[in-house]
Amino acid sequence: MLTDAHCHPVDLIRVFPQAEQERRRLGVTAAANACDMEEFAHNEGIARNAAADGASPLLPCFAIHPQLPAAKAADGKPFTEVELNDTLVTLHDLASAGRIAAVGEFGFDLYNAAFRETEALQENIFAAHLEAALRYDLPVVLHVRRAMHKIFAAAKKLSKCRAVVFHSWSGTFEEGQSLLRRGMNAYFSFGNTVALNHKQAQKSCALFPAEKLLTETDAPFQPLRGKSFSQWADLPLVIETAAALRREAGSALTDTKELEEQIETNFHAVFKG
Q1: Domain count across the chain
Q2: Among residues 213, 252, 66, which one has the least CA distance to residue 147?
Q3: pTM to 2 decimals?
Q4: Strand order in the sheet with 58-60
């Protein structure tokens, strides 16, 4: 079955109202990101309806996105310590009640000057989220852009996590191998980047152990060329491309169906323990 390690159902439904029908039709089990209670409640509602109907599960996740402080600053509304503390209380409440499948997405984004200005706050958010994940034995879903040095600095603590999912892996193959050698139970998630000729993503997808791979859509934010949004119907192409890349590289597990089954096994190992 198809699995999506990272998506944004609320944003996807805004541009593609039939998104949930498509997910059910394709049988996609998905981990759904949320960074506020309104978004989380929407995802949890989808999850309840899917469970009641016997449809493929949607697994709600929750965290403060690392771009949020900069986004609020751009709107003239600085992200305050009160907001941070309130969100962390919510995170702990959800985790302790067993209402989230993972803490995520959180992490570091140092892509531009606006994001770099919030680096200290991103560090505080990262530390608080990591502490919650360790307390409740939850996997983490990480957003990392131009900040791999931050991950290596936190590698010892991350290695204590049940699982560490790198959403839309943006590092190199060598960096990923180094994280695995450090004892991190890391999983590397790939979406349409492998079909968009992103060389580092393609190399990593081709060479990482198959038992460490995940697929994702990042829907609606990772569209194929000529498309305005990504969607669950993109997942078969991601898997077909991954299998082709692995065949070219001479890696293990290159049959498309077998690779899909391995990725499904990986997904359940991460999000359902």
Answers
A1: 1
A2: 66
A3: 0.96
A4: 3-7, 29-32, 58-60
